[in-house]
Design brief:
By secondary structure, this protein is mainly alpha-helical. The protein is built from eight helices and six strands. α2 crosses α4 and α4 crosses α8. The longest helix has 21 residues.
Length: 269
């Protein structure tokens, strides 16, 4: 299944509609938007499929559907209780992974822990054919071989410096970027060899999952807007919350955006 062509567009459209239905089943709203695939480039655009009034919400994602540290801890703890449900991601479970990171703080930066744990959730969901997030994972930008998940995740190819070949990274002519990527790859390789399950996934899978979390997470303010016309970042009295938001994270970026994101805490959630 390639990134272009009518068959791929139809397949992606079906997966997206299933994902939208899941969001709505949780009390969200996603029925008025669709995912358009551009045949020539393989890129995708989140599009409105009906008219919306100014200020009307196009998509609502309930907190239950958000992917964050809380959801990752819940998922990984569940995997540890029921190892037969999906292939193991770590060698000894969640506690062993966190203990490994703590023991090796000279190599594993503490500030990276949240990203790493959420990346483990993405890997766990991708390895579980019965996962409730199966439709979302299949729509994500895909890793390239030799990543084992290249056969499971079928979005357009993932583009991120962590995944660049050495030659491509050098072509950026950015010594600071090259050094930062080399340092992070060294850390992730160390974690993969010491704490992850090589029988279930490759180091390329792990790099891909970290790149996915880094590129698709949004830092939301509980008291303000993020991005678009709403402004830039948490308000002075707002608490910041890092989340991946299915459907919303498929929207394009633009310097002249006509939409914004608002995080609202309600009694229902």
């Amino acid at each position: 299944e390639g990134t272009g062509g009518g068959g791929c567009q139809s397949s992606m459209g079906i997966k997206f509609r299933r994902l939208a239905a899941q969001i709505e089943a949780l009390g969200g709203r996603a029925g008025g938007v669709g995912l358009e695939t551009h045949a020539e480039s393989g890129s995708r655009t989140l599009t409105a499929e009906k008219s919306f009034e100014p200020g009307e919400a196009l998509v609502r994602v309930p907190f239950l559907a958000a992917i964050n540290l809380r959801s990752a801890l819940r998922r990984l703890a569940g995997d540890q209780r029921d190892g037969s449900r999906a292939k193991p991601v770590t060698k000894g479970g969640l506690r062993a992974f966190l203990a490994f990171c703590k023991r090796n703080q000279g190599v594993v930066s503490p500030e990276a822990t949240i990203t790493l744990v959420v990346a483990l959730q993405i890997l766990s969901e991708a390895l579980d054919s019965e996962s409730s997030l199966a439709q979302y994972v299949k729509l994500l930008p895909a890793p390239r071989p030799p990543a084992r998940l290249a056969k499971t995740v079928r979005g357009p190819p993932m583009v991120h410096p962590l995944l660049f070949a050495a030659e491509a990274l050098e072509e950026t002519q950015n010594a600071t970027l090259c050094a930062a990527v080399a340092k992070e790859r060294h850390m992730l390789q160390f974690i993969y060899e010491g704490a992850l399950c090589a029988e279930s996934l490759t180091c390329e899978d792990f790099l891909w999952a970290v790149a996915i979390v880094r590129s698709r997470s949004l830092n939301l303010s509980l008291h303000g807007d993020v991005g678009g016309s709403g402004g830039g970042g948490a308000g002075s009295d707002g608490e910041e919350l890092q989340c991946m938001l299915p459907v919303i994270d498929m929207a394009d970026h633009s310097a002249e955006a006509n939409c914004s994101i608002r995080c609202v805490i309600s009694k229902e959630e």
